[in-house]
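Below is a filled-in request sheet from our internal design queue. Each sheet records the structural input a requester submitted and the sequence that came back. We keep these sheets so that new team members can see what a complete request looks like end to end.

REQUESTER: design group, bay 2
PRIORITY: normal
MODE: inverse folding
CHAIN LENGTH: 498
BACKBONE (tokenized):
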């Protein structure tokens, strides 16, 4: 610990912020000490993003003040926030893909000599920044060619280059491998040792307990509590977040598998999918695990018809199926909830109603005309049963929280009444309360005789939800776990890294 580790670096006092029809923050206060990691957690819509955008100068607060080392720097824009020593690394990186690492780090703050950019000096300063955080990145590399982990390192280097003392990381591990997560945690520990204050936003509670010193909980725009992580259990934290006790993080369900719904034989597509065979039965949740790039998503895209295989056979309810495109897949009773719900699962500028109706137009049209009344009536049923929080059916999908966006995708596919439902990373970026609701829904669908396939990179989730687990590595099936109740994360990793 630093000798002055209890110095208050940041205070946000009595922050209030309202938008039309929404009181996003109500008298919220936050305190960040020098040399600590403060985890900021809460359900989607709890106010985390709004609070951080107030700190980052994106939104002006309706009332309250922000103090940095006891002084009010009058933050009124992202630029003034940076000048005050605040840097926010958003989940969607703020990098220009076609520029080099150097150019991104110093963009808008170029080092010049006699009117010319001092490229050599920028290069040397970039190298010093990367040495400081213990990561090797080529300053001349094009940012678009870097891995997600390397791009994140560039964002951290940018933060250090503007002399930021307060660094906010929003879902920093969402697209990282376990090894990259370990590297990131080492960087965060180094930042702590040099007196930086880090606000860490994550829905992954294991990470919160691994990396943070204290945790602050928001619920419905209000500050619930701030606690030392050494003094709180995981179950207590979950209860604080959702406002009610949850008996188990993963709902219990006794699987009673029925007839075979889907069988895949020797599926191949280049090096991404190599000789994959498996089956899934009615009433079963089949988990797919493996490291990033193992071929899980690529396999499911072939089954759904989004990609064409080089070879292999697909059987649905015992009959071989010729699936050449997603339309064929949908007609055969297959639905795919994609990993990228924003890019592939929804048309964000369209309304909730339009997104719901898009794959179901055949059900809501009469001749050439769309029956809006029938479409809205069906949507209303799912809004109630799935507890989708929307202001109205015409609300743009882009304005929903991640959990509610996922529920809209679920609703449109549930309307198809498909027999085979593929969930690709269904809870990524979703809070613990919404996760539990999605787990309950998956178990309910399995209980109705649907065959559920779930891809997940979260090992506790795979072990907590699956009836069987298939583990993939470099495009191949490396093993199967049938006794899930007695399996461990080490068992899965041993197969995934074979």
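RETURNED SEQUENCE:
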């Amino acid at each position: 610990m630093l000798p002055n580790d209890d110095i208050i670096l940041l205070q946000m006092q009595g922050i209030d912020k309202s938008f039309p029809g929404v009181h996003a923050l109500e008298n919220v206060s936050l305190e960040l000490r020098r040399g600590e990691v403060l985890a900021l957690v809460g359900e989607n819509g709890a106010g985390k993003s709004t609070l951080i955008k107030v700190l980052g100068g994106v939104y002006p607060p309706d009332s309250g003040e922000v103090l940095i080392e006891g002084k009010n720097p009058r933050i009124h824009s992202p630029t003034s926030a940076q000048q005050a020593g605040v840097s926010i690394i958003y989940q969607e990186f703020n990098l220009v893909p076609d520029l080099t690492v150097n150019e991104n780090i110093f963009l808008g703050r170029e080092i010049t000599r006699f009117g010319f950019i001092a490229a050599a000096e920028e290069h040397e300063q970039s190298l010093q920044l990367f040495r400081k955080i213990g990561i090797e990145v080529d300053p001349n590399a094009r940012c678009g060619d870097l891995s997600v982990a390397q791009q994140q390192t560039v964002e951290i280097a940018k933060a250090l280059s503007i002399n930021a003392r307060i660094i906010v990381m929003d879902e920093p591990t969402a697209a990282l491998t376990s090894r990259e997560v370990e590297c990131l945690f080492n960087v965060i520990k180094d930042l702590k040792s040099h007196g930086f204050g880090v606000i860490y936003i994550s829905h992954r509670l294991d990470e919160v307990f691994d990396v943070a010193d204290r945790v602050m909980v928001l619920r419905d725009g209000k500050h619930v509590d701030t606690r030392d992580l050494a003094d709180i259990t995981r179950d207590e934290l979950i209860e604080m977040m959702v406002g009610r006790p949850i008996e188990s993080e993963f709902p219990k369900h006794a699987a009673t598998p029925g007839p075979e719904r889907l069988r895949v034989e020797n599926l191949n597509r280049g090096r991404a999918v190599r000789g994959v065979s498996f089956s899934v039965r009615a009433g079963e949740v089949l988990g797919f695990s493996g490291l990033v790039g193992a071929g899980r998503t690529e396999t499911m895209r072939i089954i759904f018809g989004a990609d064409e295989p080089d070879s292999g056979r697909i059987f649905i309810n015992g009959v071989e199926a010729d699936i050449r495109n997603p339309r064929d897949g949908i007609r055969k009773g297959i639905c795919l909830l994609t990993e990228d719900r924003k890019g592939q699962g929804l048309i964000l500028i369209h309304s909730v109603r339009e997104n719901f109706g898009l794959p179901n137009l055949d059900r809501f049209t009469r001749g050439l005309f769309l029956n809006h009344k029938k479409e809205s009536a069906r949507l209303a049923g799912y809004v109630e049963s799935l507890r989708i929080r929307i202001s109205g059916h015409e609300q743009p999908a882009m304005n929903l929280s991640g959990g509610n966006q996922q529920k809209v995708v679920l609703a449109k596919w549930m309307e198809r009444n498909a027999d085979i439902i593929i969930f690709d990373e269904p809870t990524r970026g979703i809070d613990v309360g919404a996760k539990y609701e999605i787990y309950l829904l998956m178990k309910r669908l399995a209980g109705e005789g649907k065959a559920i396939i779930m891809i997940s990179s979260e090992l506790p989730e795979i072990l907590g939800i699956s009836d069987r687990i298939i583990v993939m590595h470099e495009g191949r099936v490396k093993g199967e776990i049938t006794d899930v109740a007695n399996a461990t994360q080490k068992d899965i990793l041993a197969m995934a890294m074979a």
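SHEET NOTES:
- The chain has two domains: 8-242, 260-496.
- Residues 178-193 form the longest helix (16 residues).
FILED BY: M.R.
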